Amino acid sequence: MFSGFMVTTWLAATMVAVVAGVLGFFIVLRGAAFIAHAVPNGAFAGAAAASLLGLSSLLGLGIFAVGGALSISWLSRRGRHDVVTALALVLMLGLGALFLSMSEEYASEMFSLLFGDVVGVSSAELLPILGLGVACVAATLVLFRPLMLSSVMPDAGDARGVRAGRMEVCFVLLVALATTMTVPIVGAFLMFSLMIAPAAAARSLTARPELAMGLAVGIALLIVWMSIALSYLSGWPIGFFVGMLGASSYGVARGFASYLQSRPTQRQVASEPIG
After folding, report:
1. Is the residue at 78 inside a domain?
2. Between vectors from CA 208 to CA 206 and to CA 212, what angle results, nearest 5°?
3. Which of 54, 107, 127, 195 could serve as 24's disulfide partner, Cβ 3.0–4.6 Å?
4. What is the DSSP secondary-structure string of the chain?
5. In a domain, 147, yes or no
6. Tell me, what's the pLDDT at 273?
7. Looking at residue 116, what is its pLDDT?
8. By the 8 A CB rule, do 24 and 219 touch?
9. What's the structural domain count of the chain?
10. What residues of the chain score a pLDDT lower than 70?
11. Is residue 190 within 8 Å of residue 20, measured between CB atoms?
């Protein structure tokens, strides 16, 4: 499990989990789960086009992810955000279906892009994936305070020179960058759960931004590591374990948070009359 090609698997999956936890915090905070769903699924069309042209699927993913994210950001200023996101997703999925119908050799590669194939990551792909991951995490940390202001207090941020429109563009570009490096590992469908579930679980446990982001990274790492081990031992797809463990982590976090809220505090116990 820890020798040979599996070393590459563990390294790539670890970086994916870190990116998912860091960026997922802002996705949950901004209520942008639909964008986190639409961009990776729509970018799948780019991978299909690259496969048709004999190019790198990572290049196709990047082009369509960035193009789709920027289109959603620009059109959302002129219409309803959810409608624009849905239409962009439908358009890119339609293009993906067209590209797939024109290709004859895509089954295994396209399946891995949809549902993930972390054990299929080669050493040649590792460096670009790690580079994109480091860039995504670094950019998110640099923009941490402006993103927080534009997410929680947009009016106060605007007064301090933090333009909500610019931060929206930066945010969707970060989602596109994360999409490009994570989809080849966990797949377009499961990337959504890995970015949302750990961050949502962390937000259920604490309201402190730094702590919530750290918890999101920790939960995402735990999910990915457990998923690799269980997939290796059982032969079942890693996507199944990512989805199940992600949903379970949120359920456990919500249950624990509800339990803590229902417990009487020391002050309440001290104020209750005896007898």
Report:
1. yes
2. 60
3. 195
4. --STHHHHHHHHHHHHHHHHHHHHHHHHHTT-HHHHHHHHHHHHHHHHHHHHHT--HHHHHHHHHHHHHHHHHHHHTTS-HHHHHHHHHHHHHHHHHHHHHT-SS-HHHHHHHHH--GGG--HHHHHHHHHHHHHHHHHHHHTHHHHHHHHH-HHHHHHTT--HHHHHHHHHHHHHHHHHHHHHHHHHHHHHHHHHHHHHHHHHH---HHHHHHHHHHHHHHHHHHHHHHHHHH---HHHHHHHHHHHHHHHHHHHHHHHHHSPPHHHHHHSPP-
5. yes
6. 52
7. 64
8. no
9. 1
10. 1-5, 79, 103-122, 154-159, 184-186, 188-190, 264-275
11. no
Residue 222 counted as domain residue: no
CB 183 within 8 A of CB 61: yes
- CATH number at 16 reads 1.10.3470.10
According to the model, what pLDDT value does residue 275 have?
45
Residue 111 domain boundaries: 5-192
pLDDT at 269: 46
At residue 265, the pLDDT reads 56
Nearest-5° angle of CA 36, CA 40, CA 43?
Answer: 140
Query: 275 lies in a domain?
Result: no
Nearest to 100 by CA among 62, 39, 64, 51: 51
Look up residue 231 and give its two tokens.
């997939």
